[in-house]
What does this fold into?
Amino acid sequence: MTIRRHTSEAERRALKISTQRTVQMCGGQDSSSVITRVHSKTLSDYGNTGNERHADAFVPVDVFADLVIDCAERGEVAPLLEKLCELAGGRFVRVHGDGLLQRVEAAMRELAILREELARESSE
It folds into this structure.
């Protein structure tokens, strides 16, 4: 009995390639194995597109989270995260973490303070 999967073979291949790219962004298999609970060989299996034996080996969600966080700490977006968002019919949009939002909010607070000071000076 064959179970119908929602993902196509091409989509699963794209996920594996995105896994390879994400692992590379995290410094390669050896570096990635230090920040996750899996060994470098296992990480290799998750991205392996050339061996049918690894066709159904994909990154577990906790390992995925470790890799995504490592990329985010460097201001990068993990390719695997982008690919999953694409498969869900959307795209990844960063709402915080790159510091831009925090800088804009700080600038707005400073502007409010300056406006208050200007209003006080004008009324004197």
Summary: Helices lie at 9-25, 29-35, 40-47, 61-73, 79-87, 100-123. The chain has two domains: 9-93, 94-124. The CA atoms of residues 75 and 98 lie 6 Å apart. The chain has a mean pLDDT of 90.
